[in-house]
Amino acid sequence: MSPISLQNGFVECLKQQCPSVEGCYALLEPRNNECCYRCTGCIRNGVYHASDTEWTEGNDPCRIFTCKAGVVTESKLRCYTPCSNPIPAAPGQCCPVCAGCFVNGQKVTADRSVTTTEDPCVTCRCNDGRLTCAKQACPALNCLTSKIVHDPGECCPHCRGSAKYFSPPKGACMLGTHLYKSGSQFYVDHCTRCTCANSAISCIKETCPVLECPSEHQMTVPGQCCPQCPLVEESKASCSYGGRTYEASIMLLQDGESWKLDSCKACACKQGKVRCAMPMCPQLNLPCPPNSKLQHPEGQCCPRCVESDGVCTVFGDPHYRTFDGKLYSFKGACKYQLVSDCVDHTFSIRVTNDARKTKSSAWTKTVAIKIGDLKVNLGQKMRVKVNGKRVDVPYRIANRVDINRTVDSVIVNTQIGIKVLWDSISFLEVSAPSSYRSRLCGLCGNFNSQIKDDFTTRRGRLLQDPQQFGQSWTVGAKKMCSRAPRIGNGDKEKRCRGRKDHRLCNRLRSQIFDPCHKKVNPAMYYKACLQDMCECPTEHCYCEVFMAYAHECKRLGIQLPHWRKATRCRTVWDQSTSPATNLARRLH
User: Fold this and answer.
1) 516 lies in which domain range?
2) φ, ψ dihedrals at 295, nearest 5°
3) pTM for the full model?
């Protein structure tokens, strides 16, 4: 269930992140006041165990129990010692250990397990400089055979998809599409013997020995559980891998030495045979949680979910979308602190809003960035100043700031990771790396992933009214404020109800932006567009809303390359090169 609240005329929704149920074909309906499906757990000896958990019982640390979608699988660990002088297992531990944490040239760390390429079911872990390796049998699967997949290089097969099956008759058990009576025993395969008791299935699975020959050389005798290696050849003094020969001699690679093939795989030459190992990538709960993205860093083996940069957006008759996603409107026409590092004071960004001769509206006019003794001012018509002096773009100060220009914006990249995008009209976007999380303050909020406390004032007071919140971040003298004299309301009301405004703003709901509608709901942007058109002095105020929507789509990987042409929204360059503008320049 997504909590919903109404703030400043905009609907705010918070979506709950449900745990993954991929591969579960024994789904349980959500309980009262819950929105997430759960996978059926297991009960053994009166104790409940959640699906995808494992445990031991009694005094035998080598005896492992696993719960998978309501099925308990019991198996024995097979120890593997990749060293010549293993240290006996400590009390309460199953396997002996090796001094040093290397397996076939691959380093094992406390937070990164390693498996061998000959047997991906072997897992090696390092603890206090000591290596433990063991092999565990795969749990029995409770899904249709047609839904079982075994990815290359993976230890265990898994079920693809998820579903809720009908419950079997009382006391009976169902595994896949097979129904079993209570008290019956049956074999799933040559390695797995199962029992049905009171609608619960428990299985005992044999764990096969660890093999050291390449997987392509392993063979399984029909009717038997475990594969075998062919007869061991006479030990050699050289290794061949991928067509390349590694000689075990003093001049070249000595027997026992290792080499790294890529960011994932390392190999060693052992008595004429290649032994390889690679790290085990942690299972990711995809899609990544909110405010994070899937990334595969260069030079690293495993992809991971990393925190995304926070983005604060200002557009139109100022609408603000905070780092944490709160959308509100504040029509102040003074100078304000947009965002600042309120912990270490490494930077601040201030905006000056201009009323443009309207009675109640405002638009961002200039942006002032301060990082230490460096000041960058962004104005209208792509004017840029650095430390008070006008500069041409592109402009760069080594290891401090890079200022570049795109087709519709000026982009400022700083050495501290803060990035500013400004279209020289009224659209502004500030990006902050995750290192600034919970350190920021101002109109853009505090960047702590909590939307509910974004309206926190300079003095730490939490407000509900966006106007009071906005005024609390006013900076500078009163002369920085601009506001036209008040006029009657009739003209405004007439324009706010104008059909033309609705027609222009309705383009957000058209085919132009359709590729993004499933990712970004245009409803709030449509409402913001109507607000902007009420006192629009140029009749093109809808364009800044469209730009904000297009940028949000771009962040989610959806490109809308033709939206400007389709909506007749010009860039500041188009405006500065119009015939009227060029004529005015010539006359002056």
Assistant:
1) 498-567
2) -140, 140
3) 0.59
